[in-house]
Amino acid sequence: MIRSLRSFVAPLAALVALALGCAPARPAAEGPARAPRVLLIAFDGFRHDYVDRPAAVNLRRLAARGVRAERMIPAFPSKTFPNHYTLVTGLTPEHHGIVANVMKDPVLGTFRTSDTLAIWESRWWGGEPIWVTAEQQGVRAASYFWPGSEAVIKGTRPTYWERYDHERPHAARIAQVLEWLAMPEATAPKVITLYFSDTDDAGHNFGPLAPQTDSAIARVDRALGAVLDGIDRLGLRDVVNVLIVADHGMSESSSERLILLDDYLDLATVDVVDWTPVAAIQPRAGETERVYAALKGKHPALEVYRKGEVPARLHFNAHPRITPIVAIAADGWTITDRARAARRPPGVRIGGQHGYDPELPSMGAVFVAAGPGIAQGRTVPAFRNVHVYALMAHLIGLRPAATDGSIDSVRAVLR
Question: Which of 64, 87, 216, 402 is the most buried (most CB within 10 A)?
Answer without folding.
Answer: 87
